[in-house]
Each structure stands twice: as structure tokens, then as C-alpha cells.
Model the fold of this input.
Amino acid sequence: MNGFGSFGQYVPFNTPIHRMDTRVKLFLLVVFMVAIFLPYGNRVDVVYPYAMSLVVLGGIFVLLMIGLLISRISFGSLMKSMSFLWVLLFVVVILNFFFWKAPDWTSNSQKLFVIGKKEITSATFLFIGYIIARIFLMVILSLMFASTTKPMDMTFALEWYLTPLRWLHVPTAAFSMTMSLALRFIPVLASEAKTIFKAQAARGLDYSNGKAKDRIKAIVSLLIPLITTSFHHASELAYALEARGYDPLGKRTRYRQYPFRFVDALWLIFGCVALASSLFFVYFQVDGSVIDIFKIYC
Done:
């Protein structure tokens, strides 16, 4: 497998996922996002709460890994581009470990130890793992979508889905272009932040050591040039669009056509089946309380 570009940057490969119709790809993105955030399992007294949710999220993780293999995106390089995520996950763990209040239906969970007045049970660790898995899968899915989709194709897909809003005289073309440019700026700003960080570190600025006041000053010295650079890039982009005669409210034709192929229909069916399966697991509470064809007790 080949490497992964900077955060959120398109990686040009000729793979089935890269060639997939962007409208279908965006539909699959929404389907998997919904599947990630749906609640699964029993909500009656259980010994291992959130276990069924973790099993389903594990299945989604396997599907995403297969998608990464097909799209030839390196998982290791993907993890390196997600370095910002570890701080967020650490904060999530600390906050939920000390401040999460277990619901009543987790009362049968195994009690592990007590910290002060806080009782730590197996439900605490399962819930933390549940939240971390959700965030982790959401970021992987978003990066995978951005890495296999061209910005202009993304603009077309957004505009296509927003077509009904034209009846309400909503400028869908301008909105989709704005969203596409915003997404396109993410890797640019990430690259600029990395360059500024290295330049400041070469001048002796330390972001990791010292008092909290010194660290805040160091971060400010990073943010100010980053904001200035952002305005500079935005200004250059505006001039470029103006020089090319771009009119967001004008009627535009398309040079490139996006035919809907048979393989795209198969991907669409796969997405519908995945969504129906997720809703099925949620509605029927796979613990035997509603239907007895499942023998999974969580």
C-alpha cells in the first residue's frame, strides 16, 4: 500500500473506491455515520452494557479496514495524520472516567474499585471504549472519504443532493462550492500550521515545556501567523475566481459528465442493506426481549 497525504488531502489512485460515483460515496458516508452513532443492545439491567454496540462498531471497523485496503491507503500513515486526535481522546477518557454517571439499567455491572465517592464499574470502561470507538471510526471514515474524493466531485455531489432546494430559490451551487472550498482548505491549513510550528521551534520556541502561561504565549505565536496566512490564501482564491469569471448565481454547464454505472448501483444497494441492518439491530434490541432469533445477551 502506498502512503497517505496530509490531513484530509485527496490521494490520486485508480481504485474501485476512487472510481465510485461521488453521490453514492457521499450516501455511504452518511449511512456509516448513522450506523456509528446509533445505540445498539439492551436497555434493561445487563451485566455488560454497551457490549453489543462495541461488537457492531467492531464490525464497522473491519469494513473500514477492507475499504482502506481496496483504496490502497496506508493505515499507519492515516494514524500519523490523526495525531491531533489523541489529545481529544485523552480528555474524553478523563472526563468520562470521573464525571460519567451510570444509568440505572447498568446497575448489574461488575463493581471494580472506588475512587473517593466515585464507584468504578465495568460499565464505566465499556462506555469509555464506546465513546472512543465512535470518535475514532468517525474520523477514519471522514479521512477515507476525503482521501478518495476529488474536491470538484464533492462539489457536484453536494449540489446534486441539494437540487430540491432550488425550488425554494436557494443558491445551491454557491453553497456547495463554499462547502467544497472549506473542505479543501483543511489540508492547506494543516500544512501551513506544520510549517509554522517547525519554523517557530527552529527559533527556540518550546510548545511542550514551561509554565501554562508560557505555553499559551507559544500557542498564540502559532495562531496569529496561521490566521494571517489563512486570510492571504482566501484573498488569493477570491482573486482567482474573479479572474476566471466565476458567478455563483449564474447558470453553469458542466464539461465533465458523471454517468451512473451498474457498479455504482451495487454500492448503493450495499449502503441500503447496511442502513436497514443497523436500524434492524436498533429496533429489535438484539437481546431476546423482542425477538428470539438472536441469542446474543449483552
Remarks:
- The chain has ten helices and two strands.
- Residues 1-149+259-298 form one domain.
